[in-house]
Specification:
908 residues; alpha/beta; Nucleotidyltransferase, domain 5; Taq DNA Polymerase, Chain T, domain 4; 4 domains; six-stranded mixed β-sheet; 36 helices; 14% strand; nuclease
Length: 908
Amino acid sequence: MSPTTTSGAADQASRPRLLLIDGHSLAYRAFYALPVENFATATGQFTNAVYGFTSMLINVLRDESPDHVAVAFDVSRQSFRTEAYAEYKGNRSKSPDEFGPQVSLIKEVLAALRVPVLEKPGFEADDIIATLATQAGAAGYEVLICSGDRDTFQLVRDNVTVLYPTRGVSELSRMTPAAVEAKYGLLPERYPDLAALVGETSDNLPGIPGVGPKTAAKWIGLYGDLDGVVANADSIKGKAGQSLRDHLAQVILNRQINGLVKDVELPLTPAELRLPGWDREEVHQVFDGLEFRVLRERLFATLASPEPEAEGGFDLAAEKLTGAAVGAWLSENAAVAVGITVLGTWKAGHGDASGIAIAAPEPSPGKPGPAAFVDLVEADAEALAAVTAWLSDRSRPKVLHDAKGPLTALSDRGLAVEGIIGDTALAAYLCLPDQRSYDLADLTVRHLGRQLKAEEVPANQQLTLDMDDSGPDEADLAMVRARAVIDLWGALQSDLAERNAAGLLTDVELPLLGVLRTMEHHGIAIDQDALGDLDSYFAAAVADAGKQAFEAIGKEINLGSPKQLQVVLFDELDMPKTKRTKTGYTTDAEALADLFAKTEHPFLAHLLRHRDATKLRQTVEGLLKAIGDDGRIHTTYLQTIAATGRLSSTEPNLQNIPVRTEEGRRIRETFVVGPGFECLLTADYSQIEMRIMAHLSQDEGLIEAFRSGEDLHRFVGSRVFSVEPADVTAEMRSKIKAMSYGLAYGLSAFGLSRQLNIPVDEAKTLMDDYFDRFGGVRDYLHGVVDEARRTGYTETILGRRRYLPDLVSDNRQRREMAERMALNAPIQGSAADIVKVAMLAVEEKLREQGLRSRMLLQVHDELVLEVWPGEREQVEALVREGMAGAAELNVPLDVSVGVGQSWHEAAH
């Protein structure tokens, strides 16, 4: 390589690099590149444009490594161009409803990444970009413009490149001077001349009829520029020349409009667009709200963090111990609270532990904290005895992260653990229940400002261990994680206190760990033969429904293909159009059910049956795969998924077994009492959410309804419709039931009208009449939102908080969704808390009374127990007592109990 080339490369590398992004242009492309129906948060906020834009941004920042960045947005469609030509962009339809609110979300992402956003009333984003590109180019910058607007091609120079999306926002073409010339046959600065002649459909600028890019480029090449073409218009022969002369005024207007303004007055100069480094905590908050877990991981993995957190790990005085050294180390270092990490495997109530790492806090600032590792497989009797005694000593405080699995692994190795004072995953969840991830490494960076990366350990010799060239082994890393756990626990104490969550952790969530571990370990028995027969039955039902669907339309199609269904439904059968999506008209279950109600077409009947049978068969297939060697199904319960505090079930999800259809109930029939036990017992709360509503609202009418013993919905219906309870019809009761539960979820008059298939005016009248009779409910619903907006959070009966910053958001859709959450969270969260307290009470009573009956499942408001022979009456009594006494409300907590040989038979 010549010295000249080397110098040139060095000059290029030393030049500042400015990235300018056309915000609306890329957001639109992202919106249409990703199916809107596939990108939405649990709250209903669509995020496809935000996801695509953010993904594109991460890729460009990674690939181009700019040190200066800005994103320009249009303020509105009104600009000096629309003043000059009212039809400018007049052909563009209104933005989709799903798109508008996402622009503000994109700006939130940019704010978290500390990327400057620029807007200017009366101008377009392209004008801002042109101004900055011109200024930066003159100052010696290398400029990259990311835009889907071809008008930016006029800015391309040797030091200005346009990154033009060619496929959604995932593929960008580099438009250099050579690339523009190769595509259009002229220099970039002449591109607006060509566009003036041929027009620009997207901007509603008409071109010269019969004149295409090649002819226009030839004229410009012949006469130098557009001015030359105009000056020589009379000498241009043929139909094209005449067409030019006929439309000369439009061509001149086009050129006035498509020229970008390069001297817009802006608040920031290129030098002030240097990226200061993104705000990790704000990124967490924004990405949590958007539920962008994978995208956040990509961001953290792709872009170096600007925070000092990337510099430090953990200093340990670490040892691998065996024999008498184990007991000595524990005596010396483990009297205070320590962090524990377990090596091993665990899943669905079973596991095995191969090693345990223990770390104590730093004895003094700057002094490495002690850490030890004991190999539980190879350890001698003396080491195991010391570990066993220490683990079972409840006076020795211990902290773990996501403790249920590790405790299961230790238990299956015969090691009981007492004295657990903290679980850092549960603690972080109680502090920030809307987070999507409670990974230890993520929390360590977030709360400690330190990285938990394996590759950092040997780099600065933080571990005093023998390490070969391959780096630290699992034991080394386990000790680092144990140290992170205890340090994180210390950092979370102030957050727990500030959020009033310490009591919930100590009194509810931590004790529940043991209950859930036991339930997972027991599992529930399954009649495998009956489940296999169901699989065959649903397989036949799928085939039969498919066959009848094909006969109804006279041909076979892929019933799972939205495109093929669209052709059949809307083209061939000419059915009413459903909601339009990017890929056509939606064929989701709700839309098809609505279509069937309107048309009663047999094809839809068989299609819906096909879908239902397919879902049921998938459920059965999942259950068959989950049956363990003991003939039982062992689910895994999760405490940190639902922001309201409800437990979740996974692998398989036993909280999602259908119960409202006869065929769904057939699945529950296959869950049976296990050998040696007498029966299954189910117990659940009757109308617990409405009882909590009565308690929280203090509405005298609702309280009276529950205290009277009258059927709730019949009692409320009699008040609303001004009739005697005996005269409340089934239709009246159904309407009241739908509204009573819907109010707790922010149901609107429109929503109620759709749910009950009645006019909106009738739904509004029904709601008004309801609130006239139950004013306390109305006042509570209004007050809880106002209070949450004032404090920033909602609170359950036990003090569980859910923080809702979107209550003051400028984004209407997010704000309204937060308001619905504020209505729902105290009620659903209180119900979840009550059920958890009930589980603790039932488990304690079973243990106190020395019973062999055991709790197997929790399904929202329902508990399922397996009853030992001779214990049925005692178990029923203690379950009723434990559940009814789980909370003191102004209305009684009514408990329904049933028994039977199967889960279905035990229902009530």
